[in-house]
Amino acid sequence: MLGINRKLQELEQQGTIIKVGLVGAGQMGRGMVSQIESMAGMRVVITADIQLENAAKAYTKSGVAISDVVKTDQAAEASEAVKAGKVVATTDAKLVTALPEVDVVVDATGVPDIGAKIAWDAILNKKHIVMLNVEADVTIGPLLKKMADASGVVYTGTAGDEPGAIMELYDFADALGFEVVALGKGKNNPLNLAANPDTAAEEAARKGASPKMLASFQDGTKTMVEMTAVANATGFLPDKPGMHGFVSDVKGLPELFKLKEQGGKVDHKRIVEYINGIAPGVFAIVASEKEEVNHEMHYLSMGEGPNYVLYRPYHLTSLETPISIARAFIFNEATIAPWKGLQAETVAVAKTDLEEGQFLDSIGGFTVYGTILSAQAAKDKQALPMGLVDRHVQLKRAIKKGEIITYGDVVQTKESTIWRLRRMQDEMFVEKEQKVHPINV
């Protein structure tokens, strides 16, 4: 099988390209457009954003002449522009998912409910869908994957995001027959469960980032969501609710992931975890019972065993998304998907004391943060998935700081796509038996 680079070159030489539709022209989307403009065999032919100029600037900043950017919300005009070799900027996300000329849709909005709509529409229009929206994926990914499979298209997370990068290490080790003991990522900043857009504002201004996005990193929600995606792809679970959050350098990881009775820090194997001290990298802890394999690993300076670490010190976020686009289109393969179904859940926890009648806000906001549980534990508690939290969810009772919010604690004051799809997913999989995992979280 030819490498993706050579396959893309072949496409270009044959006079064809993979035509990409993008929704969301924020930092991630703009970076992806610029990266793809440097590539063979692929182009973002249409970009949607609620601010039309954001979509247009994604192209001009990538080197596309302004005269080649057609601004329209009209399907016929958009189709003609793409056929003429131009690109389209629009405010209509449905135009992206419905345009016949688009082969692969990318959701870069980061908003769970919007991502749900985009993925649903893309699959109904029989287009591959690449999600830069892990929050939507961990909430309704099993349903979307089942739909995509039935429609003959690919539903996938993205290369470059930590779950995708972790999955590459897992696939490599698993294919070689190693025992995979643990999978994880580094966390960029100390856990601060009280972080909110106000506390994150100063640092966000220095970094040119969104305070809300930064707060979602600081309060751990993003890490919990990312490792939930890995759990749903592999069947691995947290060693305990919320994971441990150990402090370590890369060299110390193999010892850390020994079982406690062997002098390590964990109770189980086949776990997901995050580590303070190794960001921005991702890792897989592997082992082997074979004497010759262990001898070779020692010879290769991989350590003394029995555990070894495979470590990738970078992930390029949306700059790597074109790899997932190409894999979906050329090889009909996903980079990462919830192959194991709903194995874990990121659930909503009160960030501060909340009052009866108060509305929740959203990920990275002032009211809640996310923590990871096994799917069974979340079901037993009737815990509210973090991806269902938005400003239309109202509390029916007062909630104390640190308390898990349940379905029974809230009322939804406005119907949303992601709530509707989550109900459909729960009904679809309610009778399905899950494989029993040794961790009882």
UniProtKB/TrEMBL annotation:
<feature type="domain" description="SAF">
    <location>
        <begin position="345"/>
        <end position="411"/>
    </location>
</feature>
<dbReference type="InterPro" id="IPR036291">
    <property type="entry name" value="NAD(P)-bd_dom_sf"/>
</dbReference>
<dbReference type="Pfam" id="PF03447">
    <property type="entry name" value="NAD_binding_3"/>
</dbReference>
<dbReference type="Pfam" id="PF21135">
    <property type="entry name" value="DRL_cat"/>
</dbReference>
<dbReference type="GO" id="GO:0050661">
    <property type="term" value="F:NADP binding"/>
</dbReference>
<protein>
    <submittedName>
        <fullName>3-hydroxybutyryl-CoA dehydrogenase</fullName>
    </submittedName>
</protein>
<dbReference type="InterPro" id="IPR005106">
    <property type="entry name" value="Asp/hSer_DH_NAD-bd"/>
</dbReference>
<dbReference type="InterPro" id="IPR048423">
    <property type="entry name" value="DRL_cat"/>
</dbReference>
<dbReference type="InterPro" id="IPR013974">
    <property type="entry name" value="SAF"/>
</dbReference>
<dbReference type="GO" id="GO:0016491">
    <property type="term" value="F:oxidoreductase activity"/>
</dbReference>
